[in-house]
Every structure is written in structure tokens, then in C-alpha cells.
Write a structure and sequence with these properties.
heterodimer, A: mainly alpha, two-stranded parallel sheet, about 60% helix, B: alpha/beta, 6-stranded antiparallel beta sheet, 8 helices, Fatty_acid_desaturase (chain A), Acyl-CoA desaturase (chain A), FA_desaturase_dom (chain A), iron (chain B), Ferredoxin reductase (chain B)
Chain lengths: ~350, ~375
Amino acid sequence: MNRTLPPHEIDAFGRELDALRQEVLDQRGQRDVDHIRSVVRTMRYAEAAGRLLLHVGIDPATFALGTGALGLAKILENMEIGHNVMHGQYDWTHDPELDGESYDWDMACAAHQWREYHNFEHHTFTNILGRDRDVGYGFLRVTSEQPWNPAHIIQPFVVVGLAFLFQWGIGAHALRLDETIAGRQSVAELWTRARPFLAKGARQLFKDYVFFPGLALVNAPRVALGNFIANGIRNVWAFAVIFCGHFPEGVRMYHEQETRDEPRGAWYLRQIHGSANIEGGRLFHVLSGHLSHQIEHHLFPDLPACRYPELAPRVRAICERYGQSYNTGRFRAQLTSVARQILENALPSRARPARMH
Amino acid sequence: MSTLATNAPHVARTASFALRTTQRLSRALLLDRSFRFWVDELAPVASRAELRARVLSVVDVTHDVKTFVLAPRVWPGHLPGQWVPVEVEVGGIRLRRCYSISSPPNDPHVELTVKRIPGGRVSNWMHTHLHAGDFVRLGAPSGDFVLPETKPTKLLLLSGGSGATPLIAILRDLAHRRALEDVTYLHAARSRRDVLFASELARLSSLHPGLRVVLHLDDASPRLDATQLWVLVPDLAHRETFLCGPTGMMDAVAPAFLGFEGRLHHERFVAAKPAAAASGAGARIHLGRSKRTITTTGRGTLLDELEQAGERLEYGCRMGICNTCRCAKRSGVVENVLTGAISNEPDDDIRLCVSVARSDLTLAL
């Protein structure tokens, strides 16, 4: 339960978080660059090892190892490197390889479209119903505050499909297909949005299923299958991490009128109550791109993500002092909670007051 | 005509077509980043993405000046008196400074002579951390502080402190071309131990009767100003002068050239001065790409100011989160209104929606 804060406490709360942010900005330096470069190095070596094993091996063991290494590389590249670099977390280094504006990641979503809908829409209007299109992505009912319609009955199956095809979901999210179906976006506008996505998707398909298999000559089917499984591993992993960050029980939704003219402290509060963390070890955090610290990521999306684990206990302590909830749990607990939300909301809500926390 | 000569343009065209196609394909498939990583990992100086130079040796010139001898992978060539942007990484941040090249064009290597500036991030880092075997990144050599194509008959090379670096390049080049006729080289230094290239100057003046070397030591005589300059160089009015030194010294000698300013060529490296108005009103913002200059009103952030001036800019949250309005600041000082952080580095990225001008600015817009 959250204590309702009077305006001066909201401001004080905001100032405490601003101070945390400033502290990291003042210390930002070699350590952060060393971290991201070591992740890049690990990713590149994993990628090279994976390709080598897939391309030259003929036995199932090298296939499994190669596919696993490639899947690991894709996870690191998308999560800890791509997502964080594209948030501009390392722009201050002036290293063109870590530049957020020019980075493009190894997945079907076109980088510039993601930067627009994710960095701007989702991070500014977090969990505001009708403004943040990440709430159920326009076709899932993840909270009882969203209106139910009969199509939601099959959403447990839709979600499983989405998990395996997650990169295509992230890419297609930029299209606003649901708005065209509802008549709020013209077909011409849809086509404008679809073109970069289709182009990027086609290039990715060509790379994974024509170019690299082609290089492998007789091993082509083996390489294509390895790429397919590696993509799948990354898809399911990214899906699980991201759903646990926003859709477990206890995450609050907002209505636009309550966020109008909100002061910075209230914006911070919304980020905290609109996100959930996953507990785990250092490796788990890196593999999740530190989205296991979704709360800290939402508070400080442009700070180097490797700082989130050290910020987390301090953010939590501030929340406790102000009587604010801080949603965190083990991976399995958060996943179970997400699954329950998806299942429960597939059916119309019984007559009960909307969940307010 | 030989077969080779007839085929050469055709072969070159095919090769460049193949190269371009490979580059486009690798970019489309996102393989270019991977290539650059492996080049960096295995042979950093071979990079084609940027010009890198291996440090061959580091030579002590005086107690606070060192010369870095560099071997770039390729060198576009430079004129004596020009400078080159040098990029190094200090605490994870790439910083760029322009240094005059002290070696003449005929030298097989490129030499940069760098004074350790108290508090200077790049010069201190170079003095402490840059050793033989490391590499630095270089930009293209540039600058118009160079001799005209035909050497002026009478020449004065006038320097103060580390301002000697472009002038020693000019002097070395003239010596190499055996063109040291009627050249006066006047160098002002704090004390004997601060004189740059002392033994080389002595050697050159004994070899070349046409060269007159004059040293002015601040601790032994009054500071160099216009009057002193006339005493040291009585035929000043007949000489083409090339001047480089600290701002104070350059301002002090400038009146000596009254009436024949056209003969004075100078090189200045000036730091941005913060604007007087705390609100940032009245600062001039120069937009490098659109070649527009606007004057700030002090009523809002740079994003507001630029929009009021009719610029149409990309923006998102307008509160310093989403990074959409990020823009490279080429020069000048801005303050982040959220954090109070001051950015005075050249080529710093700023967010227009949370920045106000604290000096005149040049933005990459």
C-alpha cells in the first residue's frame, strides 16, 4: 500500500532521486566503459565461436554448443549492448561504436523506430492508459483497467506465440496496426511505418537464412536451423524479462488526467509504481540487459545500466522512508504473477473495483 | 599503348565497385560493426574507419614539454604551420584537441610537441599515460597559418611559450629547403629552461648565416611588448611576421604592427568566455550546418530559443529523458538546467531541451 504524499513530500522525494542521479553522473567514467566493452568483447567472441562451431562442425554436440553460443551473443547484443546503447547511456564517451543515435541492433526491429516509440513514448508516458502503447501492446489485456473484448479469450495462446516471435512483435509494434484497424490511422500512414520494418526484417531474414547458410555450403541447413534456434532463444528470453518488468500483479496503471502537469517527483513515483524488478545474480542482470532493474531503468534510463544494481538498494530505502511500494521478486515468482495476470484478464472482470495500489 | 595501361581504369573501376558493394552489404547485414571490432582487437592501427597513429617515441623537450613522434597508417600530408586534431580517451571519454605539427612535411613521421597545461585534461593525460607503442586517433591536418607559396624575402617568426610549435615546423622546412635567407626567429620564454628547441636553434643558426635567433627571457628582461619588439627587431616594418603565443603575449605585441597590420599573420587558440548574463540572454548561437546565427532571449532552454527563432527541431519528452533532441555542441559553454552541470568541452553532446547557453555557441545543426 502506498502512502499518498503531499506536494512538498513529492518534491523532496524527487530531489532525493535527483541527487542519486547526479552522484552517478559525477562518477561516470572508465569503469562504465570497461564494463560495456567487456560485454561487447564477450559477445563478439561468443558470436565467432558459435559461427565457427555451426559452420564447420557436423555432430550434434558442436551444433548444440554453437547454437547456444550464438543465442548468448544475440542476447548480450540485444539486451545489455543494443538496448542500453540506444538509450544513449554511453553517448558521453564519444565513442562512435557506443553512439546511441547510430547504433542498430541484430534483430527485426528498425533501430530508429524503436528509439521513437520506446525512448520517447514508453519512457515518457510510462503506464498511462491510452498514451503508453506498451501496456499490452494494443492487443493484450494485462490489467483489469483495460476494457475486455472477446478476442482476449485466446490471449494465453497469443502470448505464447509472441514469446517465440518476440523480435517481430517489437518490430511490428512501430506500425500501430491496431490503430489502422480501429480507423484512427490511414492505410498510407501504416505503409509509411511498415516500410522500414519490412526492410530491416528482410535484411535480417536474408542474413540468417540465406547469407550465413550460403557461406556454410553443404552445412547450410545446419546453419539455418542453428540461427533459427538462436533467434528463438533470444526471443523467449527477452519476452520473459520484459513481461516481468511491466506486467506482474501490483504494477499500477495511470489515467491521463492524473498525470497532467505532474512534477518531477510524481513522474519518478509513476516510474517506480509502473515497473517491477527481478532478483538474481550478476550474470542474470547482465543477460537481462539490467532490465531486471526495470525500476531503476525507468527512473534513470540514460545512466549506464551497470550502475542499477548499486542504485537499487538505495532507491528501495528511499521508497521505504516515503511509504512507497517497491515491486521486486524472484524470476519464477514474477513469471508466475505475469502468467496469472494474462490468464485472469483473458476473461471479463468480475464486478470488483479496479485494482489500486 | 600497353595492355596494362588500357586495362588499368577498367580494373580500378571493377575493384572499387566490388569494394562499395561489399561495404553496402556488410552495413545492411550489420556486419560492419563486427569487422571494426576484430580490426580493433587484432590490429588497431590498421583501422580504415578512422586515422590512427602509433606512438614511436616520446621525447622530453623541457621540464613540462614533450614531443610525441607518431607514425600514422597513412598521412594526407601537411603544410608547415598547420595543426591536426588529436583524439585520446581519458577516463573513458574521448577528448579532442588540436595541436600544431612541429615536424616539417619532409619528415617521415609526424611530431606533436605538447606542453603540460596545469589542469589540462588532455595534455596531462598525454604526458602521463601516452607511451611508445600506444596509438592515438588523428583528424585531417588543417589551418591557414602557413607561409605564402613564395617565401617572403624578409621574415620574422615570433613565438611565445608553446606557440613555438608551428613556427619550428616552418623553420625546419625552410632549413630543409635551404631557404633560410634573412629570417629572424624570436622566441619568448619564461626562463632559460623553458626555451623550446634550444639546441636545435643553436645548431641551425650556426649552419645558416641567414638565420638570426633571438631569445627573450621573461625572468631576465622586461616582458615582451610592442616597445621591446621594436628594440629586438628594428626592421620589423619590413618583415612579414608569423606570430603564435599565449593570448596575453599576442595582445602585448600587437600594437607594434600599427600601420602595417597586413604583414602580421597569427594563430590563436582561444577558450570560450562565459556570457555575463546568468539567464543566458544575448548569447549568439551559431548553427554550423544551416549557417544561421540567432541571439538568445534568456526566456527558455536552447530548444525553446531555437524554436522561437523558427528552427524546426526533433524533440520528444522536453524534459531530458528521451535523448531525441541530442545535438553536438562544437564550441561554447552550456548549463544543464536540471543538474546545473556545465559543459565546456568542444564536441560535447547536449540535450537542447534541458540546456541553456552560458556563452556564444556553435551547434552542429
